[in-house]
Design goal:
single chain, alpha/beta, five-stranded mixed beta sheet, globular
Length: 130
């Protein structure tokens, strides 16, 4: 008899270095930028965690802008909650504001369906001409 696997819960990212390591080892990441003082962030987090538990195809991560200050600064996060989506080491979307689980699931489906072929070709061409 097999035991059920643990829910797919969001991981915490506390620095740019940790973010870089995470991006290097995962092809599809959804990062929630948040803050303890942000009421909409606190309201949105359970929705984010709920979708994360149902979406093993992506790694869901949380970065507190008051802890991961270097990361928030590098990506110029000016509003929270904010979602940053990375596929194959490329930021493909940035969305601000809280959303309902069905809205996040809809976004997740769009992000997953994105054909990365053209993006890969662009970066291959850019690096070849450099």
């Amino acid at each position: 008899m097999s035991t059920p696997s643990a829910p797919h819960l969001p991981v915490t990212i506390d620095s740019q270095q940790q973010f870089n390591q995470t991006v290097a080892s995962h092809d599809f990441i959804v990062v929630l930028f948040t803050a303890k003082w942000c009421a909409p962030c606190q309201t949105f987090y359970p929705n984010f965690a709920e979708v994360a538990a149902q979406a093993p195809q992506a790694l869901f991560a949380v970065a507190d802008i008051d802890v991961a200050t270097d990361l928030a600064s590098n990506f110029q996060v000016a509003q929270v909650p904010a979602l940053m989506v990375i596929r194959q080491r490329v930021v493909i979307d940035m969305v601000t504001g809280a959303m309902h689980p069905h809205e996040l699931q809809h976004h997740l489906a769009m992000w997953q369906a994105l054909d990365m072929t053209a993006i890969d070709a662009h970066f291959t061409q850019t690096s070849a001409s450099a």
